[in-house]
Every structure is written in C-alpha cells, then in structure tokens.
Amino acid sequence: MIEVLQPGLYSSIQDLGRFEALDSGVPVSGVMDEYAAEIANSLVGNPKDYAVMEITMMGPKLKFMEPTAIALTGADMSPLLNGKELKNNSLIIVNKRDVLSFGKLKKGFRCYMAVSGGFQCKEVLGSKSMYAGITKAGNITKGDKISINASKVLHNIQFSKLKVNVDYLDILNLEVFKGPEFDKLHHKEQQNLLTTKFSISKDNSRMGYQLKELLKNSLHPIITSPVLPGTVQLTPSGRLIVLMKDSQTTGGYPRVLQLSQTAMNVLSQKFTGQKIQFQLKA
Amino acid sequence: MGFALTYKPFGVHGLLIEWPQRIDESILHDILRFKTKIKSHYASKLLSINHAYASILMVFVEENFDFHLEQRELETLYEILDDNKQESRLLWKIPVCYDPRFGIDLEVLAKEKNLDVAQIIQRHSQPLYTVYFIGFLPGFIYLGGLDERLFTPRKDTPRLKVQKGSVAIGGTQTGVYPSESPGGWQIIGNSPINFFNIEEPHPCFAKAGDALKFHPVSIKTYNDIKTLVEAGVYQIESEVVDD
Questions:
Q1: Residue B59 and residue A133: Cβ atoms within 8 Å?
Q2: Which residues of A touch B12 (CB under 8 A)?
Q3: Distance, in angstroms, between B98 CA and closest chain A CA?
Q4: Which domains does chain A have, with CATH numbers?
Q5: Are the beta carbons of A226 and B16 separated by less than 8 Å?
Q6: Could you say which DSSP state residue B84 is in?
Q7: Quick check: helix, strand or coil at residue B98?
Q8: Does the ipTM exceed 0.95?
Q9: What is the pLDDT along chain B (243 residues), one digit of tens a residue?
Q10: A251 contacts on B by Cβ (under 8 Å)
Q11: Which domains occur in chain B, in start order?
C-alpha cells in the first residue's frame, strides 16, 4: 500500500485507456505520454499496459507501507527517496516506510511512476484510468491509500539496461497527419498552419491543449462528428485546440490535423508558453 | 440502402466513413446497420468504433493498417448490407419539470418566438425524438426531431455552470445535461432522472436509434421522482415501438 501524504498538483492513476463506452460519451482517458509509461513499466518488469501514476508539474509526497520496486520516467522533477536524490529511468528499490518526494521541475511536464506488480485499483468499464464521474475521483488526494500488488522482481532483481530516449522532452516539432477537414482550408491557411511556431496557452490539461496564436480561417462548423485524442480542432475565431486523452468523444469544429502518438508524447511534456510546430507526415 | 460514402484515413489507427453531411433518420439507420456489420466482421481487430450524425470512426488495434485494402473491404461489406427492416426500438418517457425555477430561459425564449410559455412546453413535449448518438459528456444524448418553431441559437457566452438534468435547446437540437457542466444552450426545464449512472451495467439507458418523449410533470411529481431516483428504485418508463 502507498499512502498519499501530499497529492502534488495533479496526480492520477492511468493505464492505456477506456475504449468500451465511447458510444455512451465516455472519454478514452489513459496516460498522456505512452512512451514514458511503457518505459516505466518495462523497468520494473511489468507488461506495458499496466496502470502507472501520472504526475503533473509538482510531484506528490508518497509513503510506501510495503517494500517494492519502482521506476520514474518522463519529466525530471528532482525525485528524492527519504531526502536522497534519485535518478529517472532506473529501477529503484523501496523499503517499508520509505518516503518518495519531488523537488524542482527540471525538464518536461509529466512524470510517470510504475510500481512492480502494478496498482490494485478497481477497473471501471475495462480500465483503471481515473476520470471524475467514471471512477470515484479524477485524481489522488491527501490521505488516499493506494493498494499495490506484491512485487515480482523484488526477489529476483535484474538491473536491465534499457536504452531510454529523453531527447523528445525538448522537441519542437509535432508529427501530424491531415485531418478530415484539412483539405477545406485554403492553400495559404494550410501554409500558415504548418509554418507557424505556436505557443501553448494557459488552457492546457488532460482534456486538451489550446494554442495561443490564432489561425484566420474561412471554415464552417461541421455536423457533430467523432474525434479522437490527438485531433486538432479549429474554431471559427481561429483558435486551435489539440484534444488530449480526456477529451470529449464528438465535436462540431473542423478537424484539421491528427497527431501521431509520438507527437502526443511530445506535447504531453510541454507547458504554458512553450513552442510547438506541426510537421506534416506524408 | 446505397448512400455515396467517402472513406478517409484518420491518423495512423483511424478510418473515417462519411455519409452525406446532414441530419437524417434514414442516414442514422444506415449507419447503425453498417456499424453492427463492421463490429462483427472486424471484431477484435478494432480498438474502438464510434458514430455521430453522419459518420463512423473506426480505430484499428494495429498501427499503419493498409488503408486502401480496408477501404475496399468495407466497400464490399457495404454492398452486401442487407436492407432488412430495422429492429424494433425502445421509446423512453422522460419526466421534465418546465417550472420557471428550472426553465430559466423559458420566458425570454417565449418572447423571442412570439409564443406563450405553455405553447413552448407543448411544442417541446409533443414530438417523438430520435436518439442519434451519445457524445460531448458521458450520457449526453443528441436528439433529432425538434419542432422548427423552437430552433434557437446558442447563448453568445456559455454559462459556466449548467445544473445537472437541465433540459435545453441549442440551434436545431434539444438535449439534457447529464451532469453539471459549462454550457451554451437555452434552458427550458429539468429532468429528475439520471442520464448516466456508472453503477448500472449500461451506464446510459438509451442507445442510438431509440425514441424518446418528454413528459411534463409538476414540481411535486418532480420531487417525488427525484426521491425515488436517489433511493435507486425509480424505473424509467419505456415501451417497444415498431415503426
């Protein structure tokens, strides 16, 4: 069991998402940065679809009530175990009553913690991903006691050498495909969309990232149609909205681009004021 | 049925099938028949499938699926789609209290439409609506069949908080907010029932293709129903209809 001493800014349990209730309007949810989550699971010997803790900007303070092994990936938030510095992207042995805390955010925006054996949360509609209204809460709060499964690697530790790429935390370009309404943009509008360096507005969350610079356009609203995480919507006022994992399931704004999962990993690690540029993949 | 369909890739996993872009019950029935066929044909090859007014979005488990191959397969599948009579559907009777303490936009709307409040209620509770799909929020039902006299633009500035159960009109559509949320539709009443209940095996009782009718109730009945709903013993009235 893990006791939440401090929840941090926004931490939640997420797996790869919930796909069976889209037609009841239930968002997909799941980890924003699938690459970091997969690496975290691999480091502790879990299958890649196991639920992990997604930690945003300011880390929580967690007390382990049983020994286990963990791994931290994605954003570097200066992690500490009992006050001693830890390294991201490595297997960390944790003893009973150890306290994990975080310091300054050094790089990226979302950090992922996998525990060996996985979290023991209730599955709702086929997923453990937290989403308010579907699971009991949307994020962890002070005093929560999170059950974990017994570690499988603890008695047979293999410090596997895993080549971890952290360069993506600094990438400007987002790999995209044309969305269904891309071809309805005028040539000039398409060019602006693909050559502008956009900055992340303060409206960014698990639901979506709004971009600050407006893109003048002549598109009309569409009849409400399905959208996916990674869909880029363009509003009549020129606002670009990149839908993320907790986004609605349908929408009425033109869908001009679709991000690849790699691009979603990159964007998930960005925060207010940082720049991105769309790069069309043929 | 034979609509002219278009097929478009949607990222590396997705395939979008589009019908003529309009709100039309014959398109909905075509979509639902094709969707059932696609689900059984592709089965576990699909990560998810979802539809809206005039499109279906399929998401494949496999990345980089062969788009042209799948398009041809879907075209063949669509050609042999049997034109069977649609299955019988359920008609849900939804209690709504149109009292002004819930219907906060009723009077303004009445004035704009040059109708009195009773006429608006009558025109809203008269039609047999069709459930096109559920989207936007868990349990938000997109309905077709609103009386043209009640078409009304969304508010210029959306309200930050719309109460759970609010029955509202937005453009050519009407619907019920299943949970408290921001919203820009004009609010004309409130329904005491749950449109989304995670404790139920099917969290949203209605499904695409079903019919729905609003049934005006007094404040007292509203409160009685609300008590039953909260105790978990209210049964939403429904019946099977054959068109």
A1: no
A2: 177, 260-261
A3: 26
A4: 2-167 (no CATH), 171-280 (2.40.100.10)
A5: yes
A6: P
A7: coil
A8: no
A9: 589 999 999 999 999 999 999 999 999 999 999 999 999 999 999 999 999 999 999 999 988 899 999 999 999 999 988 766 666 789 999 999 999 999 999 999 999 999 999 999 999 999 999 999 999 889 999 999 999 999 998 887 788 899 999 999 998 889 999 999 888 899 999 999 999 999 888 899 999 999 999 999 999 999 999 999 999 999 999 999 876
A10: 135
A11: 6-79 (3.30.1360.40), 89-241 (2.40.100.10)
